[in-house]
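Researcher: I'd like a structural prediction for the single chain below. Treat it as a standalone chain; there are no partners to consider.
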Amino acid sequence: MGSLANESFSIELQQLDTDSDTATKQRTQWLLASPNPPSLCHEMINSVKRNVFPRGKTTKQSRNGAFFSVLKGLFPILSWGRNYKATKFKHDIMAGLTLASLCIPQSIGYANLAKLDPQYGLYTSVVPPLIYAVMGSSREIAIGPVAVVSLLLSAMVPKIVDPSVDHIAYRNLVFTATFFTGAFQAVFGLFRLGFLVDFLSHAAIVGFMGGAAIVIGLQQLKGLLGINHFTTNTDVVSVLEAVFKSLHNEPWFPLNFVLGCSFLIFILITRFIGKRNKKMFWLPAIAPLLSVVLSTLIVYLTKADQHGVKIVKHFKGGLNPSSLHQLQFNSPHIGEVAKIGLICAILALTEAIAVGRSFASIKGYHLDGNKEMVAMGCMNLVGSLTSCYIATGSFSRTAVNFSAGCETVVSNIVMAITVLISLELLTKLLYYTPLAILASIIISALPGLIDISEACHIWKVDKTDFIICIAAFLGVLFGSVEIGLLIAVGISFAKIIVGTIRPSVELQGRLPGTDIFCDITQFPVATETPGILIIRVNNASLCFANANFIRGRYNF
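Model: Treating it as a single chain, here is the predicted structure.
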């Protein structure tokens, strides 16, 4: 029996040795004949698949339902729509109606800021929210025109075509820029290029938004004072110079200023009441629409338009007309329009994803940035074909939507339907709406763009980031929107490069009686290891760009 056991044991050892030799030969073969890495084309295809197809094990059932899986990946509404209940719809319809009461006057005002006819602002609040509702994953974000993107368009497109000379050509270029914006956003999402948005740092965004808010406010002096001729430049000096020249050389009608300031004070008071009493959140939301209604009635009943009050006048209603034939792909300025689309795409994505993620964290769910980019891109692509200009997530309207108790993105659908009904039935009533009211509504939304407390926090945390913040702020204020963005991105790149080439390096020492190593300058009790130099490279990895710097610093 013992001999049989020894024989079986030796046989097992021989098998193990054989298996071990076979495994070694296989590993050697894998190393010597390793497969080629996937090509760029395959990586791009896999990137698109990861965004479109849901992750999980591939089974026969999943293969049979691959088509539906693709649809669920592209249209999240198919997933959560199955569990949608009437109790949620009750909250969503109230949030959507509250949102529409704020969206209608703001959209008209932002279209005026973008130097477009007022109906285009309302068009932009119909189609893009509907597209986002079926493709987007954020439950709270409110889609529509925003002040900063409107300012970008009004600052950059007039350098190609002056809207006062050829308004139709200007509008067509805006639609074309919207198409490029959507195309860039969709490409960023499909190929997982969201990291490009991160080059616009938080500090740069804070500074840019603050400068843009002041510039937008100064631009509204045209409507608030009833000025006919105004500068196309956006810097503070040019705007103030144009205001003083107009007040001295043109007749000034103080009724515009009185009417605008009166309702501006009214809107700000309602906002103060809403902040003090959370149950009154609906009051500041409906205040802009109430201001439009009351001011329009005042102008109509008193014939104030005959006494110098500037009014909207022509206001085309109805469904969104097709703008496919208006896209200018054969324009000699197509390169400049594409550049405008790229800048607007990055800025709009930065704002929308920041807004969406901030409210998603409050509700406790994750927001996929790449899928959001695809949804934003598709809604702007479709919008450019239906007479809409660039839409994105608005922080002020999203905050109202959240406060109104929205449960899902259905609130955007309710808002879009309400705006559509207004386009069909109420546009003729807005003929006498004073431009000063639109200016006051835009001005009332600007304090939310200026975040002084965040700028102070940036100063405390990182002085270099604060320099980026101030540079973006001053660049927008005294240069232009493009200069402000260029300065912010340029300094951000410079910070990254300098941090890589000349990183912070710490000499490490051992704490007595422990195996812990730490910075000697921070912990003087730590002792160096004799004959061994231990360093820690911060903010970068050791590479060819900083190897000579580190070698020269420690002479090794």
